Amino acid sequence: MTVDRDQVLRTAAALLTRKATATMDEVARAAGIGRATLHRHFAGRDALVKALEELGIQEFETALDSARLDEGGAAEALRRLVAAVEPAAGLLAFLVTENQLFEGEVDEGWNRLDARVSALFRRGQEGGEFRIDLSPAWLTEALYALIGACAWSVQDGRVAAKDFTYMTTELLLGGARRSTAA
Fold this sequence. Notes:
This protein is an all-alpha fold. The protein contains nine helices and no strands.
């Protein structure tokens, strides 16, 4: 039987976004394969998480590309980004809380993602759309946190999936927009 590594990764991502403490046995069962087969593809949990990190970075880069961040206003570009990242939001929520990924040397992919998102916030600040008293780096971290929080809320049934983009962007933009009152 040929094992589709990408399908195993996506199954692992779906499981780990629901249960971050899932064991390799649970991942294998969810993927419909034996533990030995899983270990042939991923030597252990660390290797699996690193492979998930690569997938998550790839998914987020794809979302960044499809969001066309340089087109139109920064707020609209942010809305497009959140909508584009929604399918991978659960995986990203898992990854940003997976401590092993941020101990020691951080994957260069995260730095590329951070730079692109921070550039969007900087463009919004320079264009007068976003507050200038919050750094682009902080707004980037806040975006990641909101994406993760909304993904968990949707997963737990506390929030309707159809509201993901609206709730994430409106909460962030409500705090990031410049106040017109002086």
